[in-house]
Structure to design on (335 residues):
């Protein structure tokens, strides 16, 4: 059964309050005024969120959260790494959206802040619903596994689709029922022109960010259910991954060409976790597992997922660097 009620409510509430405090402190102090987030600043924030996630999973949670042992720590780290890795694909989609709408660099952080705040709410609701359903119908884990396997195979077989924000049904509905201004108005999402209230293009970007995360959550949340059945771990690892997504965007957005094989790596991750969910026995503990079923340790899953991502990133950077080096040498070779 899922560990849905083993963690007392005060721990859930305490974690949420601390996260909201950090978000308010971030927006109200460090990013009170709009500015362009440079690479070093983004890298520092990305490192900070990673360190906080590891501190929570390795040091803090084992001391204060009931029934949190080494296995829960492994599940948290595996879930966090998986969610953060799958979020990288989301980063590149966000970069396309920002370029499509021409969002000024100094306003991108504010959009990501409110977009990720909405993502936290949506994912919290989805995790609660998913955990409740799986706790009642544990066979749904087989459905999740099959879904991930099919998704991974489709990503391999089908070419990558171009991101077209104007084809997004939410954007089309917003344009149909709400007047939208042609120009930005600073960081405002609603502006007034000739006595009329209009949505700004920044509001459409925010809608696109929210719907994009919702789509990606349909893949990432079933994946983490394949790594842990503890709802508190699923929620906390998701939150830390999403919190680091803003700064990760500013680290990776200008280096998309260096991650050409990342999507392939994420596809392999989805296939692996899908197979893991299909091979592991789910149901009554006393039931005899079938001949093909096996328990795959969380530690092994963490090693496999981490290795796949590292290999994909290293291969991407190596191939891209070699290609750029050859292009630089090509003019000289003709002399």
């Amino acid at each position: 059964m899922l560990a849905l009620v083993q963690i007392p409510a005060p721990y859930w509430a305490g974690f949420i309050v601390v996260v909201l405090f950090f978000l308010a402190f971030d927006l109200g102090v460090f990013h009170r005024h709009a500015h362009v987030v440079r690479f070093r600043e983004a890298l520092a924030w990305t490192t900070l969120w990673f360190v906080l996630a590891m501190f929570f999973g390795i040091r803090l949670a084992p001391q204060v959260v009931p029934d949190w042992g080494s296995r829960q720590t492994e599940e948290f780290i595996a879930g966090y790494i998986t969610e953060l890795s799958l979020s990288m694909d989301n980063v590149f989609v966000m970069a396309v959206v920002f370029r499509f709408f021409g969002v000024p660099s100094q306003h991108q952080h504010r959009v990501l802040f409110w977009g990720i705040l909405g993502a936290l709410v949506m994912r919290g609701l989805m995790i609660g619903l998913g955990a409740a359903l799986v706790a009642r119908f544990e066979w749904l884990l087989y459905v999740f596994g099959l879904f991930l396997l099919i998704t991974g195979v489709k990503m391999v077989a089908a070419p990558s689709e171009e991101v077209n924000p104007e084809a997004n049904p939410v954007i089309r509905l917003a344009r149909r029922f709400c007047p939208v201004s042609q120009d930005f108005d600073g960081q405002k999402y609603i502006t007034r022109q000739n006595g009329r209230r209009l949505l700004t293009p920044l509001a459409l970007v925010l809608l696109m960010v929210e719907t994009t995360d919702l789509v990606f959550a349909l893949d990432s949340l079933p994946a983490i259910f394949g790594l842990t059945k503890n709802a508190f771990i699923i929620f906390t690892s998701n939150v830390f991954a999403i919190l680091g997504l803003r700064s990760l965007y500013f680290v990776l957005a200008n280096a998309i060409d260096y991650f050409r094989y990342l999507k392939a790596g994420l596809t392999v991750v989805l296939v692996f976790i899908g197979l893991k969910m299909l091979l592991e026995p789910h149901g009554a503990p006393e039931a005899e597992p079938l001949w093909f079923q096996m328990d795959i340790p969380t530690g092994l899953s963490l090693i496999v997922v981490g290795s796949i991502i590292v290999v994909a990133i290293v291969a991407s950077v190596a191939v891209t660097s070699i290609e750029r080096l050859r292009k630089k040498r090509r003019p000289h070779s003709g002399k």
